[in-house]
Input
Amino acid sequence: MKLILNQAARLLVALVALYGAALAISLVLVPRSDTGPRLDTARAASSLFLTEPKYVFMSRARLNTSADKVLLVGASNTMAGFKQRQVQALLPDLEVHNLAVGGSNITQVSQVVDLVREVQTPEARRHNIYVVGLWYGLFAADKARWYTADRHAGDTDIDIERYRYGFYRRSDAGAVPVLPPKYLDAGVLLIHPYLVLDRTARDLTLSLREFIGTKKRPITDAQRDAVVLNDADKRKYLAFWREYTGLAEMLGNAPFQALQHMVDGIVAEGGRVVLVDLPIPQWHAEGSALSADYRRRLDAMLPRLKQQPGVSVVTMDDAGASDDFSDEVHPKPRVTPRWAQRLADELAITARAAKDARSSPQLARTPS
Amino acid sequence: MAFTSLTFIAFIGAVVLLTSMLPSPGGRSAVLFGANLVFIGSYVDSVTQVAPLAAFLLMCYLIIEGVRRSRSSAALVAGLAVVIVTFIVLKKFSFLGESLVLPFPYLIAGLSYVLFRVVHLLVDAKQGELTQPIAPLHFFNYTCNFLSFTAGPIQRFQDYAANKDQRLSLDEEKVFRAFARVIMGFVKVAVVSAIFNYLFDSVSVRVLDTAATLAWPMLLGLYTTAAVCYTVYLYANFSGYMDIVIGVGALIGQELPENFNQPFRARSFLEFWQRWHMTLSEWFKTYVFNPLLKLLATHVTAPAAGPYLGVIAFFVTFLIMGVWHGTTSVFVVYGLLMGAGASINKLWQVMITKRLGKKRYKVLAEKSVVIYLARGLTLAYFALALTCLWVDMPQLLRLTRQLGIGGVAASYLGLAVAGAIAYFVWDTLASLPVRWLAGSTGGVIGRNLGLAFQILLIVTVSSFFHKAPEFVYRAF
Output
């Protein structure tokens, strides 16, 4: 046994020495990622974190402040529709952070909220205003969304980031933190060589990945504004979403219950929620059975949510003109200033109400 | 227990330490017994799921003991029939339909390799090579050894028996080499096979997409790329697993047989199978090819037919070996391709030797161009035949229709030439001094830094891919 333990110890020492050198060199060559004063997942691709889930997971520690914060959560249409800098420009007294992650369903959005909660003190949580971008795709069943061959069954993109560097471990009850969330920044520092390597490897293989089709070529805002969809494109998009949502004809109850649960959790901790009923192009809404089901369910749910203290609703059903969208779901860049203004108007009211409620606690129970 | 999981690494760590604490033959057997139980238990959720395997083992044990005592041919034939039929039923071969399938989920992994060992014991029992009854503990440890349970290597019982009676004896060099072997195995699996699995997944999804309308040259290029990626993935995955189990075996005093010997250096299909999954090839040679050839030789006595009997025996042997890989119809195609490859190879050898004579054939075969081209042709044939392992029958038919005979031929020849060039480049690069990476040279510090580098490489690539590749041969 002594021989085996000796060899294991030598290997461990070599490992620590080598990794220490790699860490030092990587820090000298590539400084730590500076995400700026506001988080914006739209900038993930140009950061050391590369992807939106990793960006949210790794950089969230800076949200632990008592400043009033707007936290945009949802899928890619939330990110594309409410550009962080546009909303921020309209709300200079608030910190606007974009934590939307492309491809999210409500399970993943709830996980983002949980990730923020993990790193915040109870006081910081009272200063959160979550903006949740809703649409039918957000209510896709987990079975359809997260049970694919390329991942462990049921792992969301956020789960993948939780496990990737061992910050969490898998258990029957779900993800369990290995690294206490208060040491998140130290953990990110320790994995710096991997972040640098990941970034470098992906940059070097970008052309190859674009060629084999695992990475789509980005398009510019001008190209998005100029898009005109033909019938074949529309059919392709409708087919994609049918497939993406597991060929379901109806949405399940569970995702709507998850939304309610998430809202209740935020409000219970003193935070606020603004639910935005995001538009999709008219042709998409008319061509999707799930969209109709979503509309029925949400119309029944929203009046109840509106009555809930700390919750407000923004409906944008007048913004579904097909020409305002660059594809089946994302608004063209030219319309996003309008979207930002709509949201900012509601956020200004919500922020004032939150401030008043904090200064006179009895007001906290009044519907906004 | 996925062998790329931390659980598996912790498990083998515990087994190694326990074995070194109990180095006597009895202690080692006891640890191995416990480890086998834990390993098999990790695949099931209830006793019911392991009951068919337990019953199969018990039945096999009794039959082997019966054959050993009687040494009768009839008992051997009957025993083989019962064992093989039971195996086919338990394996749920698709041609059986639903009627014979046990109506509950149960463990199938490992059954094939248990069968190989049992057939070997049955034949040896008949031939009188088992002079003593096998103790149930050793029968279980031999047939269900956790290191070789899912995919071999197939150890001979005599080698296992000689090994089990020895006290664990290690020295510093042995321990280092075992560590290096295990780590190299993980590099192959978690780095090489993961990268090629990723490439294969990305490319094959486009090749098999029924909605896609790829231009023919693009389809040809993507298909050939997918075939190559799958072949490298399979090799790295399987041979990496072998490195891990052989390395762990060395630490617990088991000398498991080698299963790979640089298969892509093979200059012919028949040589390839002497280098790839060697213990399986050896098993088929001993228990299928040799008896079959003997049988044919007794019925066909004309001297001129002699060389051609080998062609037939190779075809049948490789057909069976191919079909063994799976339970659906596409594996019959795989078997036919394997059989065709082996028999055409044998036929070529017979014909070319006849035409040129042994001497001139030997001279020709030693020319560099011929060597590299032969290696390229061998790789191309194997890679394209392996398509049957990553498609189902409708996909195979559709792909063949889309490519056409011209496409398949172009893919084969293109890959053969590209392979020949790649081998030449590889051989040139391999002659460069990069041995420190394998941790085989240098002092204590240098060697361990080499291993540490490989571990960091494993962790790095694993962090790129959020799902470690499955052990692919577990499915066969």
